[in-house]
Amino acid sequence: MTTKEIMDIALNLADLFEMPSDTTISVSGDNIKKVLIGIDMDTPEIMLGKQLGFDLVVSHHPKADGAVIDFHNVMDIQVDKMVEFGVPINKAQKVLQKKKTTVSIGNHVSNYDRASSAAKLLQMPFMNIHMPADLIGERFTQKYLDVKLSGQPKATLQEVVDVLNTLEIYNSAKASPVIRCGASSDYAGKIAVLFAGGTNGGADVYKAYFDAGVGTIVAMHAPEDVIKAVKEQNIGNIIVAGHMPSDSIGLNAIIDAWTENGLEVTKMSGIL
């Protein structure tokens, strides 16, 4: 298979028609049979892949080229997600802009050529798949919680955590689901699962969800400043599901599809 064919499988699973800016093929290749994939794959992992005889190295998190520099552009999908949960579109755009600008400034000074130049020198096909996996994981987890908690308007945060832990990928993770804002006996209310959209949108984005009627945000991760701000607002809850297991949900779906298409896939670097 070619890198394009492998990428297209991931895009199709996520119902995407083109590669988003955080998902790229840095070094293309063909006749690929053996794939090494991990959540964070940089120069050492590319070298490892070459040494062990793999035909392609895949990272989940963006490590190279435009996927780094243009990463902030994928955050716009968070506007659509906010609108889905009742946030006015003009407000959604404005509350996201602060974090989007911060991400753009930070990535602009990054060494975006580090991993891709190593892959080129090693002649090792290299790509990353970020948004597709996050979308798959987000949709699955949202639907899972919606179904399991249907008809339970007084479900508590602990009950939400318990439902997440009925999934082996969360239950067996070293960093398993945890309540970061709210008490275990607090009512969860309306739940929004926020995995996709590049990175955490920031405290203003969380407040917009809570103002629109969301009671609990289930995120992959939440920075300390966001947790602190939400606690001070005292209007919503945060459950951090866990970064590695949450990323693994979408990645494993993609890996299963690749395997069904004849690829031999080895997981490492955080994929459960």
Question: Short description, anyone?
Answer:
By secondary structure, the protein is α/β, with parallel strands linked by helices.
Overview of the structural elements:
This protein has twelve helices and nine strands. With 272 residues, the protein is α/β, with parallel strands linked by helices. The strands form two sheets. The chain has a five-stranded mixed beta sheet, sandwiched between helices. A four-stranded mixed beta sheet has the order 5-8-7-6, with helices on both faces. Helix 2 runs parallel beside helix 6 (114-122) and helix 7 crosses helix 12 (243-260). It is globular and about 55 Å long.
List descriptors:
single chain, 272 residues, alpha/beta, five-stranded mixed sheet, 12 helices, 15% strand
Percent of residues in helices comes to 40-55%
Q: How would a crystallographer describe the biggest sheet? A: 5 strands, mixed
Q: Count the strands?
A: 9
Measure the end-to-end span.
25 Å
Q: Supply the number of helical segments.
A: 12
Helices and strands: which structural class?
Answer: alpha/beta
Going across the biggest sheet, name each strand in turn: 1-4-3-2-9
The gyration radius over C-alpha positions equals 19 Å
- What would the principal axes of the Cα set say about the shape? globular
Approximately how much beta-strand content do the residues carry? 5-15%
What is the overall pLDDT average?
A: 95
Uncertain runs with pLDDT below 50, 5 residues or more? none
- SSE topology string: HEEHEHHHHEHHHEEHEHEHE
